Amino acid sequence: GAVVSQHPSWVICKSGTSVKIECRSLDFQATTMFWYRQFPKQSLMLMATSNEGSKATYEQGVEKDKFLINHASLTLSTLTVTSAHPEDSSFYICSAPKGLDEQYFGPGTRLTVT
Amino acid sequence: ILNVEQSPQSLHVQEGDSTNFTCSFPSSNFYALHWYRWETAKSPEALFVMTLNGDEKKKGRISATLNTKEGYSYLYIKGSQPEDSATYLCAATGNQFYFGTGTSLTVIP
Questions:
Q1: Mutate which of B7, B43, B48, B90 to test chain A, going by most A C-beta atoms within 10 A?
Q2: What percent of chain B stands above pLDDT 90?
Q3: How far is it, in rounded angstroms, from Cα A112 to Cα A102?
Q4: Residue A85 contacts residue A113 (beta carbons within 8 Å)
Q5: Coil vs helix vs strand at A34
Q6: What are phi and psi of A60, to 5 degrees?
Q7: DSSP state of A59
């Protein structure tokens, strides 16, 4: 099956710094990628839809200036958490769909802000 | 936007018991229904994708059914085992994926 990678798998950063998370589709092209966040004891929450060649679409309540998304190519989307704070500590997952029948998830990134 | 709901929110069963849970979705603007098995801090594992009314899929002890007319899908686990403990997510596809809130299953040895 298709593979989606994420890097890094875990990161610890200091409050006020920025962190970049990469999502790559390794064996297929994805014009769209999705970024999710998992809150403790809750399900995946869609944060934004990353669109190759155009601006990302953010879900209601997600600050676009804080969570910068860039879809630089058909195989790479990046999520940058700017000026991170402890409340941004979470598990972030990306996914890339192949049509409407299949969606492939990355392994996730555990972010801890101290 | 598709409003996808799952019930129950959490479930505890004894090892060996069979169990089932529900995913409901609006029947209009529907394309496909997906079930995922998700362990915390890991990537969700795809279980099934179904598109046609009356579809039934089976994978080992786990099976799923789909009713697109009334907008629901059931996931069944026969003879639950401790390793089945996880969150089971459903997602409905309209023009994108919309996830339910998940059913957290704990199988007690």
A1: B43
A2: 66
A3: 30
A4: yes
A5: strand
A6: -60, 130
A7: P
